[in-house]
Amino acid sequence: MREIFQVFALIFLFTSCEVINPDEPDVSFIYIDEFEIDNQPGQGTNNHKISEIWAYADDQIVGVYDLPAKIPVLNKGNTNLSFFGGIKNNGLSLMRIKYPFFYGHEINLNLTPNSVDTIRPTFGYFEDLSIVQKDYDGNTPSMIPLNSNEGELSMIANTDDVFEGERCGYYRLLAGSTNLAFKEDQNLALQSGNTIFLEFNYSCNNIFNIGLISRENNSDIKNLAVIINPTTEGLQNPVWNKIYIDLGLIVKERVDAQYFEIYFEAIPDESGKEIELYLDNLKLVQF
Questions:
Q1: Which end of the chain is more exposed for a tag (fewer CB within 10 A), N or C?
Q2: 7: left (phi over 0), alpha (psi -120 to 50) or beta
Q3: Total Cβ atoms within 10 A of residue 270
Q4: Domain boundaries, position 92
């Protein structure tokens, strides 16, 4: 009798597994191993740090994927697929968003279960954007010191150090000095409520801050946006990175500002340290 009970128990177990884990539906796959950036004249460098793809099928989100990606899609038959480039907002992995200034890539496919379609999306800036850019390829720095500091501002044309183009900005704080602080020598008209991002390439051997100075009632107010970690240690050839910084919240809060200026600031994280900060391809983008 005990043996009979065990047999019935096994039958129930297997049939229960079928009920709990029914056959998964057949899916189609979209394979993406890379994408292209198509910048137009006046939109600056093609360099980017798009870190993932946001995928949609018939306007319903399928998921967010690092590349290369094999994206499963449950839709069958004629399906409108769209893909968008994603970034780490303010350089933070927990703040991933679709980059708002890039158009997406759309394609209509007849999806067949268990098939794999390979595509290579193309992204680029919308045409109706305001883009202010500094590529540092001129002969003089476009930034000036903030108040009094002991930093040096210069241009570098050494091909081993420059990220791209002919020159990059080079900002140095000598050992034993207090802080490196400078601002972009341009008054920016930024509209409250607008989406505003600052993109740039950088290399630094020390933590540094970036933000906006707002001019209000004949006074300058520093508004910190992001604290950025170093990309390298010591004094050596630069190790470049790129970041996208959301400035819209600062502008929204400073409603009385007459204008804004971008500033950078670095304080040595250890006594007697010499700081080197390289900058290239500053790009302020807004609708």
A1: N
A2: alpha
A3: 6
A4: 2-125
